[in-house]
Write the structure tokens for this entry.
Amino acid sequence: MSAIATRYEVVVGLEVHAQILTQSKMFCGCSTDYLTAPPNANTCPVCLGLPGSLPVINRRAVEATIRTALALNCEIPEFSKFDRKNYFYPDLPKGYQISQYDLPLSRNGHLEFDLNGEARRCGITRVHLEEDTGKLLHEGAIHEAQASLVNFNRAGVPLMEIVSEPDLRSADEAREYVMRLRAILQYIGVNHGDMESGQLRCDANVSLRPAGSAGLGTKVEVKNMNSFRAIHRAIEYEVERQTQVLESGGRLAQETRGWNDARGLTVSQRSKEYAEDYRYFPEPDLPPLDVSREWVAQIRAGLPELPAARRERFMTAFSLSPYDAALLTSSKTMAEFFEETVRLGAPAKTAANWILGDFSRLLNIDRKEIDDASIKPRHLQQLISLVDSGAITGKMAKQTFEAMYRAPDPGPALEAARGSTQISGDAELDRIVDQVIAENVKSVADFRAGKEQALKFLIGQGMKISRGRANPQRLDALLREKIQ
Amino acid sequence: MKLYQRTIRDLHQMLVDREISSVELTDAVLSQIDAVGDTTKAYLLVTRELALRQAQAADERLRANRDVRPLTGIPIALKDVLCVRDVVSTAGSKILRGFTPPYSATVVERLEGEGAVFLGKTNCDEFAMGSSNENSGYWPVRNPWSLDRVPGGSSGGSAAAVASGEAIAALGSDTGGSIRQPAALTGIVGLKPTYGRVSRYGLIAFASSLDQIGPMTRDVVDGALLLQAIAGHDPSDSTSSLRPVPDYLATLTDGVKGMRLGVPKEYFVAGMEPAVEQSIRDAIRLLEQQGASIEEVSLPHSDVALPAYYIIAPAEASSNLARYDGTRYGFQAGGGRNLIEEYMLTRQQGFGAEVKRRIMLGTYALSSGYYDAYYLQAQKVRTLIIEDFKQAFKKVDALLGATSPTAAFELGAKTQDPVAMYLNDIITIPANLGNVCGISVPCGLVDGLPIGLQVIAPGFGEAAALRVAYAFEAATQFHKARSPLMGAAA
């Protein structure tokens, strides 16, 4: 970091919008499928804002918001209400968005995370519930377009707004916060965390202040970041830009800037003087929400193990490093893949290395999630056991893994690796079985006495002697034959 | 007596007795519309074919004696703020010209279920904003009692239709008096139910926290019958109440003996016509003679109800009417060079002066920096008014007063002075702000023009309001007076 940059402290607060994975929309019974349905197929008088239509609250969306708020350690007041946020835009059919203003469903929470081994904590100002807007499609660039089309399939999809305190001090922290937040949303099943499709969106409020000062500098809102990388780059860019303005004796304008990912810079969109007055007032079409303590307790009881707790458990139960544990638990599906692989018998550290190493590398290239891959925990466990038994080398294993990954069914690639070294000749197997029987007199006696478990042990010994190259089914048959 | 002069109850009996068919009855009312419709201008749209089709279906139902309801086969008019599937519904506004909703209001569905016959959409002040029907985006309505006078508003078309024999009954909507005041000015019965008693789904909104749909009828019994059909919870309207709906007819004729009736001193406002005041005092005396105990009560915040209303209602309206931007349905000006210009042209040309005035008032009241001084303050006043009623209803069962301080005024008399126009609703507005119910029942003629007695009862006390109104009606002949256009009851 340059000497100049250290004279300023970076202050970042994030506003994350997350769609809630309900079947139906926030205020009507329409399907929330706006990605695959034909334009305007999932609409009705309510989500189109036709005259006389009235909203009805989707209780599941309220529940999902409370679940999220509890996972973020928020307080849940007993009384909450919806408000109207008024503005004109063609993607907003009623001319107002039903949102929450002064009495949100939750407030005063926090999210803890780790950055380079250091514990961090970011305050959560509030989590509130609102409805998404429709989507505009312009013919050509927005300012030159001769026509614009609007698709209201997304209008009325439940949307949570998760507002952080300005507690983040770097682009790294901001990115880590969003990654952690995304993991939590996935864990509790309220959002898949897909940023590119807009299911999860992030705006950043970025300002600088002299190091050591407690006040807040002029804040710039940065929008349009739709990947973790974009969040990181945009904040880095904005910090650099603001530093240069301040260093050259200039003043920063309070404004909204859009991140242009292709050009790698932020562009001014509108200044504070033109800020809209949203004329919030209580939504008269909806009664206030009474959030009973029993309901909150019920939702709390239904919360699954959250990433932070799982990370702690991975560190103690599997002796993983804080770093590996954090990475593995950053995605619910990855953590589950890991646990299942270990449960099937793979050593934890080896499984973690595979998942965080080759597997993640291949997934990243293909922009896929772990549960999209054809490789399942049992495949990985078998591959690991081949290596551990010495049947194949590490180098072979890497090649095998990639072949398994590429194939729609990883089975044949795995069998090929096993088969390439497998002992099939009965003479050699005979020798191995004889050796096992000679070296394990007690187990042989146990098996004769009827202990099936003893045979498993003997097969294991045979595999060990053969360095994994023996066919376990054949060993089983030969052992039974010779012992009885 | 001509068929179109009769009440729902009479006609129901005749239909059940096969004295008449619904098609005959509907024809009779449609003929009256043909005869006087161009004079009153009560309708924006007459749904002749729909009416005859429904009448035929009602006749089949009557013939088969299958689920015959009090409204089966009865021709009813619907205020144009109510959405009817596949029927143009404009709320009296040019901005919704040609708008044909693909859905019906819940009350419309309930009446369909009863087997009622829909005559058409009645004229009203644009988006129900007005007290004279002169703010209609199409044309003013004339009072069947005196054609150079207004029928009141905003449900002026519904009132004029019932008063002229162009409908047996009608539905109106009441945000600050829009059912009761035109009922009073045209000599019929109009009931504003408690907020939440009747579903608002499909009612084109003016002010969402105040709007209620209610019956406009020839007499109190008909009012009870029509309310019975439309009241009750609706899952599509979260603000509709879960309270069970009582049987309004069961207690209707119980009389006022032993009832405590209050007379709010604040309801005898400055500017009230002496003849109106005299009629109200006479009405109160009559109810006392019927056995009610009368006492003067105070609703101390009545004087600030009007200003509070003219903050809250326009604030909600400014938001409710934001959707009319010309991009999806209704009127679109065209010719704008960009989005904002197109919005402005559409709204400039689509809305009338009063609607624009209220959108501006409401937008201002909600603006940052003014919200606390206006909207929030008005909500506090509303709380005080609710409290006023609660206190009063600890002492009395219902309240009595005039519905309107004057009889019908001449067209054009108040169009240049919005505040004078707003003052018409000074005694009706508190019931909307106070979450109570009110009914207007004819109580006399002043210079040949009808006036109304208003009975206000506590929230969900419609049965009590109807009972007092019925006792008064039963002891008087005022409701039997017929407008010249309806014709003498021969």
Remarks:
- The CA atoms of residues 242 and 248 of chain A lie 10 Å apart.
- The interface with chain B takes residues 45, 48-57, 84, 86, 88, 90, 93-96, 150, 277, 279-281, 284-287 of chain A (CB under 8 Å).
- Chain A has a mean pLDDT of 91.
- The radius of gyration of chain A is 29 Å.
